[in-house]
Amino acid sequence: MDLKPIYKNVIEGQADAVESGVKAALAAGVDAGVILNEALIAAMDEVGNRFEDGDFFVPEMLIAARAMQAGLALLKPHLTAIDVQAAGKIAIGTVKGDLHDIGKNLVAMMLEGAGFEIVDLGVDVTPEAFVKAVQEGANLIGMSALLTTTMSNMSATIEALKAAGLREQVKVMVGGAPVTEEFARSIGADAFAPDASSATRVARQLVA
Ligand code: B1M
């Protein structure tokens, strides 16, 4: 089945058309992961390119994001076939100053499917809120950042965990488009994951 119309409708922010396209693709037996990667994520990459080129502005990015999320909601049950065993409790959030949540939501969704208990702290999450989540029992922290300017808040959160005497009892995983393995190492995170499916594998290794 041709996924181009879904791709095009995400870029154009046509949420209803994205929903009907995703429904039709699922009904035709297209794998949910293929729809996610080849239509939804690919479209958001193109939206980013157009923004960089000055063809799109924030409102266009926002309506494209809404259209993507409408498609993502339909894929969720197909991406999260729940494993039986509870794998651990992860507090996940987009760091302070950063409002991008699509990638973070996708990672949370996949981790939920892998059996993790999810505490979704949302966006613009302060170091103090991550610390509180660890005090309340999270054994893994997942931080997402999409802006180069907010990546430093990952390191601020790790410092806050140390200051609270909690660093040794929690594993820290980081990710998001500008984040790299090298950056993760430099701030003392336990792991980096480049995408949602590897985040699941990495999280499992961290709590094993
Ligand atoms: Co923003 N934005 N945005 N934006 N936006 C980017 C990130 C940008 C790269 C666009 C560009 O210039 N090409 C650019 C950042 C440049 C930079 O810092 N180097 C940018 C900018 C500049 C901005 C504003 C500053 C624009 C402005 O106001 N002038 C502003 C900032 C607001 C703020 O946060 N304070 C802004 C605002 C917005 C919207 C609100 C309009 C909207 C977000 C809506 C929302 O999230 N609800 C938006 C969008 C949609 C984007 C782009 C187009 C798409 C992001 C996305 O959802 N991608 C983005 C361009 C791009 O990334 N190509 C862009 C799809 C998503 C599935 O991918 O989030 O990368 P991603 O997640 C992946 C991996 O990174 C990884 O797994 C996910 C799935 O595979 N991952 C993890 C993510 N988190 C992880 C955590 C993990 C592990 C893996 O462990 C815990």
Report on this structure.
The protein has about 210 residues and is α/β, with parallel strands linked by helices. The protein is built from nine helices and five strands, in the order H-H-H-H-E-H-E-H-E-H-E-H-E-H. The chain has a five-stranded parallel β-sheet, with helices on both faces. Strand 4 (about 170-175), helix 8 and strand 5 (about 190) form a beta-alpha-beta unit. Helix 1 runs antiparallel to helix 2 (about 15-25), helix 2 packs parallel to helix 4 and helix 4 runs parallel beside helix 5 (about 100-115). It is globular and about 50 Å long. The model has no long low-confidence stretch (mean pLDDT about 95). CO-5-methoxybenzimidazolylcobamide binds near residues 107 and 195.
**How is the CATH topology of the largest domain named?**
Rossmann fold
Oligomer: single chain
User: What string, H for helix and E for strand, traces the elements in order?
Assistant: HHHHEHEHEHEHEH
Distance from N terminus to C terminus (CA atoms, Å) equals 40 Å
Strand order of the largest sheet: 2-1-3-4-5
The bound ligands are: CO-5-methoxybenzimidazolylcobamide
Total beta strand runs? 5
* Strand coverage percent: 5-15%
Query: Mind summarizing the main beta sheet?
Result: 5 strands, parallel
Quick one: overall form? globular
CATH-level-4 superfamily name of the largest domain: Cobalamin-binding domain
CATH top level of the largest domain is Alpha Beta
Mean pLDDT metric: 93
Q: C-alpha Rg, in Å?
A: 17 Å
CATH architecture of the largest domain: 3-Layer(aba) Sandwich
Total domains, how many? 2
